[in-house]
Amino acid sequence: MSAVSYGMVVDTRTCVACAACVIACKTENDVADGFSRDWIFTATSGSFPNLEMEIRSERCNHCEDAPCVSVCPTGASHYGPGGTVQVTESKCTGCKACIAACPYDARFIDPRTGSIDKCTFCVHRVENGTPTTACQEVCPTKSIYFGDLADPESEVSRLLQERQAYALLPDAGTRPKHFFLK
Amino acid sequence: MKRRQFIRVGSYGAAGAAVAGGLTTDWYGRYGNPIADPGTDGDRVVPSFCELCFWKCGILAHVKDGRVTKIKGNPKDPLSNGHLCPRGAGGTGLLYDPDRLKKPMIRRDERGSQVFEEVSWDAALNEVGENFERIKAEHGAGALALFSHGYGGSWMKHLFKAYGSPNIAAPSYAQCRGPREVGFDLTFGSGIGSPENTDIRNARCLVLIGSHLGENMHNTQVQDFADAIRNGADIITVDPRHSVAASKSRWWLPIKPGTDTALLLAWMNVIIGEGLYDREYIETYAYGFEQLAEHVKAFTPEWAYPRTGIEPDVIRRTARAMGAARPATLVHPGRHVTWYGDDTQRSRAIAILNALLGSWGRKGGFFVPSHLSIPPYEYPGYLPHDDQAADRPAPSDFPLADQVLAQGVCDATIPGVVGDSRIKAWMVYGSNLPTTLPDPENTFKAIQELDFLVTVDVLPAEIVGWSDVVLPEATYLERCDELYAPWWREPYVAVRQEVVPPMYDSKPGWWIARELGSRIGLPEFFPWKDSEEYAKTRLEAAGLDCDVMREDGVIVGKPGPLYFEEGALPEFYTDSGKIELYSPRLAALGFDPMPTYDHSALEEPPEGYYRLLFGRAPVHTFGRTTNNRLLSEVYRENEVWVNRDVARRWGLEDGERVFLQNQDGKRSSFSAPVKVTGRIRPDAVYVVHGYGRRAPKLRFVHGKGIDDNELITRYKVDPIMGGTGMNVNFVTFLRADAEEVA
Question: Given this model, what pLDDT does residue B112 score?
Answer without folding.
Answer: 84
